[in-house]
Design a protein that fits this description.
This protein starts with a helix and ends with a helix. It contains eight helices and two strands; from the N terminus they run αββααααααα. It is about 65% helix and about 5% strand. With about 160 residues, the protein is mainly alpha-helical. Residues about 1-5 and about 5-35 have low confidence and may be disordered. The chain has two domains: about 5-35, no CATH class; about 40-160, no CATH class.
Length: about 160
């Protein structure tokens, strides 16, 4: 794809990285290609792993193992990793999300806050569904931090790399 300087800037603004292909050498930046790091939504490995772990815990481990952690908090750890990709995919379909980047820290934090309020305050106190438990909010947060570290591992790694 041949791009002028304006086209290259559009790609560079949209994606984190760009590189020049061998075809474009000698002609400046006329054949730059974007190295796209797109979020896979339904195909994201962390989403698939968290969803499988949730199903395994819910239908296999809980009936067999009488562990308070498995019964009370394990699935809460998986909430952000298992639910956020689906929500972001729906937002992308509705054009509420403008790109296919991995979830940002701000997106993870916002969804953690919304789900904490809905599941641990509005649900128990207004709809009498569930039980308000601060440890569930902590589990959502710990799982959210782990998921955000995974999704943003390249930017986190660059903070610790030598110049």
């Amino acid at each position: 794809m041949l791009l002028g300087l304006k086209g290259l800037r559009r790609y560079a603004d949209r994606y984190d990285y760009y590189s020049e292909s061998a075809v474009g050498r000698g002609r400046g930046l006329c054949d730059a290609r974007a190295v796209m790091s797109q979020f896979g939504y339904w195909r994201d490995p962390l989403f698939l792993l968290a969803s499988a772990a949730y199903a395994l815990n819910r239908w296999v481990l809980k009936p067999l193992i009488p562990s308070p952690f498995l019964h009370n908090h394990f699935n809460d750890l998986l909430l952000i990793a298992a639910a956020l990709p689906v929500v972001l995919w729906m937002q992308r379909l509705l054009r509420l999300r403008g790109d296919d980047r991995f979830p940002s820290w701000a997106e993870v934090l916002m969804h953690w806050a919304v789900w904490s309020i809905v599941c641990e305050w509005i649900g128990p106190f207004y709809f009498h569904m569930g039980v308000a438990d601060i440890w569930d909010v902590v589990a959502y947060g710990v799982g959210g931090i782990a998921a955000a570290l995974w999704w943003n591992r390249w930017s986190v790694a660059s903070l610790f790399s030598r110049p």
